Amino acid sequence: MGCLGHKEVGVKRLFVFVVLGPLVGGAMLSLLYGSGSALGAFAAFPIGALLSFATAVIDHLLQNDRWRLGYVAAFGYFLTALLFHSWLAGLAGCAAAVFCSWIANERWRTE
User: Fold this and answer.
1) Is 103 helix (H, G, I), strand (E, B) or coil?
2) What is the pTM of this model?
């Protein structure tokens, strides 16, 4: 079958970052800081979605850059660390950004 068009790739990237980003980041925060309440995780989802959206924009702008994954990881790390005022929380942002960037840019082949 054919490759996805430019518009479909953008929608896929946004979906991956905005949906999976907060879930991966929240899971990482739970692992780093201990389990939190379900209400806290539900309330933090919109904040995670906004952070993930910003990271998706950076990932899209650097899609042809050789060091895209490194830049996206650094952006996710520093954005989360600054927001939460914690360098440890930055690891969760970094992990979510790298995972989402890898999934969004992976070309799945069905042969």
Assistant:
1) helix
2) 0.79
CB 3: neighbour CB atoms within 10 A? Answer: 8
Q: What whole-number distance in Å separates Cα of residue 10 and Cα of residue 8?
A: 5
Cα separation, 41 vs 98, in Å, equals 21
CA distances from 102 to 2, 20, 23, 32, 99 (A): 21, 12, 15, 22, 5
**Contact present, 55 and 79 (Cβ < 8 Å):** yes
Q: What is the tens place of the pLDDT at every residue in 86-105?
A: 888 899 899 999 999 998 88
Helical (H) or strand (E) element with 5: none
DSSP one-letter code for 64: T
| d(C-alpha 29, C-alpha 37), whole Å | 12
